[in-house]
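RETRY 2/3 - previous attempt timed out on the joint model. Re-submitting the same 579-residue input unchanged.
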Amino acid sequence: MKLTEEQVRYVAGLANLTLTEAEIHQYAHDLSDILTHIDKLNELNTDGVEPMAQVLFAAEETATLREDEPRPCLTNAEALANAPVSGQGYYKVPRVIER
Amino acid sequence: MNIPSLTISSVRKGLADRTFSAVELAQEALAFAKAENPKTNAYLTFSDERALAAARAVDAKLADGEDPGLLAGVPVGVKDVISTRGVRTTCGSKLLEHYIPPYDATAMERLEAAGGVMIGKANCDEFAMGSSNENSAYGPVRNPVALDRVPGGSSGGSAAVVAQGTAVVSLGSDTGGSIRQPASFCGCVGVTPTYGRVSRYGLVAFASSLDHIGPFSRTVADSATVLTAIAGRDSRDATSALHEVQDYAAAMQQPLQGLKIGLPKEYFAGLANETGDRIQAGIEVLKKQGCEIVEVSLPHTEYAIEAYYIICTAEVSANLSRFDGVRFTTRSAKAETLIDMYKNSRGEGFGAEAKRRIMLGAYVLSHGYYDAYYIKAQRVRSLITRDFAQAFEKVDALITPVSPFPAFKLGEKVNDPLQMYLSDIYTITGSLAGIPCMNVPCGTTAEGLPVGMQILTKHFSEDLMFRIAHQYEMSGGFSA
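RETRY 2/3 succeeded.
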């Protein structure tokens, strides 16, 4: 499977990544290499095999139901402590809606 | 006191005999680690304050005649992808250079509750993605055994601090071999427990269905003790197992007579090199212990790397979407609009390998490719897991190499991502199946580079895995 630079730009958009022209060129090469290798999986017939969505199948290992009891959570100040920009108790981001 | 030769039991004895206090030990361990660190760059951050507070708590318990815990006073290094309250956690990324977690990972909480003293955060590949520790934004770690070589990755720093003697034990994380491979390169013990055995709460997520936390140490007993302290159900991680935690160190004393050990033939084909010779010598040690050695087959091994790099990159592209310039410390200065803020913050913040994997993951999950790649890989994962289940009907444990070659030189493979991925061949299968697996040292090459042997057992059979490893160590296997 070969990826074109156009496809790399499209995927970078999906992944919310700004890439330089040099990176786009490099990743078109790297991803094509890796995807070509991955094509090997097509040799294998997997008809009728269930996809493995989780490791521990036995329900008793990870029974997740519990009483719904309130517990303390992070304070507003703790939650915002790592924010690059905050104010009035909120995360601040560039304006989303134009007036 | 001789810091590099300490073990959990020698620390326990020193504290009990009043040879040193926990505070004295913490101070000396910190001073030693700081003096030694420039050689390897294994620690990214030292946590003096937290270490001394933890040590004071241990001394107070000792003074009051209380049980100070399984890990009382033991100096520990913690991989920098494990969240530590109040102590910078970078994940080896420039993006999190100033990130101070507001809470502890469960493993960290339990480590400290057991008396463990974290002295610093260990370097690693960015977001735990890499096999050489060369993807850290803070520079590579040098292998303490041979300073011009890589320590392995992604938990390179966690392996190096134990091998260098600047911590008694450490915590790492493993997604496709990130504990076992660096343990093998640095010549120490490294354990990847059953998936769900240790809570992932507070482990910065890489690939959630594959991520594990586990210990590094210089003796098998020490890893067994650390695992006993940190394992067990945690209501904050729904995938953590309810299965009862054993006293793993206590369960290791029984001889190996009569155990059936399988050698998967797919792992030994093409291993006609020094690594292969050392593993054969290790197998001889087990034979002398009375183990019956039989050949088994894990027929889908050859598809493991492909399935792994689909599943892990898909999960990475989802997990790393949270780093978008809003909550986690770093935002691009060049952003007028919201979407540009996301894109530029990520484009500037992530390193090359993180971006490569995010891109691959976004591609395999994208419209029209999801079934062809992701679902296909999940089906192959089922087949690989079934291979192990069938093998364990015939044998009690499996022995394989950990890496096809010993530690390579810094820079040797850094420009060939595919070759780097292929070097994970022997560790990825156990990760996909979620079974316990560990590295034990198995002699050295003629050049003096450590070789590692992998022991794998059934889900939740850590007791048997530690028993084999311990008996192997006691009969001289580490220098086989």
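Chain B touches chain A through 74 residues (CB under 8 Å). Closing ticket.
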